[in-house]
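Incident log, support desk, overnight shift.

02:14 A customer reports that sequence design results differ from what the structure should imply. Their input is reproduced verbatim below. On-call engineer (initials T.W.) acknowledged and began investigating.
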């Protein structure tokens, strides 16, 4: 998957890992992601998806932190959460919101299969053990879009690794860490 990464992402990570400010950072990131993805939604359906997206992104913040604790790089942990969100979008037929084409679902799943298996995440159950006990707020599906999916925001061909686009437009395979100058971040997974 192709992601953007800059100093803000490392600041968000630090904020999420810091007791006392985690809840504020979490709320801000949930609002930000909901706004971004609701903006990619069909305008006729964006508002009715907002509560669902809030719940989805809140749950993926826990997956992000768990992935970091397990040794995944910042870009990999963030990619895991984006993949989970794309599984959810696919399941609802919200293909216009997807970041990669539907035919790459399995490939993205397989890359993080160990993590996903450990936490009961599947394409059909994108949150696995990260799902809130009461579930996510319901939102109407558009399953008819799965027959001939439209992916205006998807970029295919990036399913074999994490691809990070820096602020200067450089494409870095594997991402970066806060101390690098753009070289590949070390990855333990």
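02:41 Re-run completed on a clean worker. Output:
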């Amino acid at each position: 998957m192709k992601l953007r990464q800059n100093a803000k992402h490392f600041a968000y990570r630090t904020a999420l890992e810091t007791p006392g400010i985690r809840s504020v950072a979490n709320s801000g990131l949930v609002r930000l992601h909901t706004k971004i993805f609701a903006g990619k939604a069909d305008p006729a359906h964006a508002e009715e998806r907002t509560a669902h997206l809030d719940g989805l992104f809140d749950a993926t913040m826990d997956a992000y932190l768990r992935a970091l604790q397990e040794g995944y790089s910042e870009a990999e942990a963030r990619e895991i959460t984006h993949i989970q969100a794309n599984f959810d979008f696919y399941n609802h037929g919200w293909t216009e919101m997807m970041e990669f084409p539907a035919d790459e679902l399995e490939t993205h799943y397989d890359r993080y299969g160990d993590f996903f298996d450990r936490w009961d995440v599947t394409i059909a159950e994108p949150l696995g053990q990260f799902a809130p006990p009461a579930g996510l707020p319901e939102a109407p599906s558009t399953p008819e879009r799965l027959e001939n999916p439209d992916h205006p925001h998807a970029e295919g061909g990036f399913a074999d690794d994490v691809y990070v686009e820096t602020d200067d437009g450089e494409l870095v395979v594997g991402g970066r860490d806060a101390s690098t100058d753009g070289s590949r971040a070390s990855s333990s997974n």
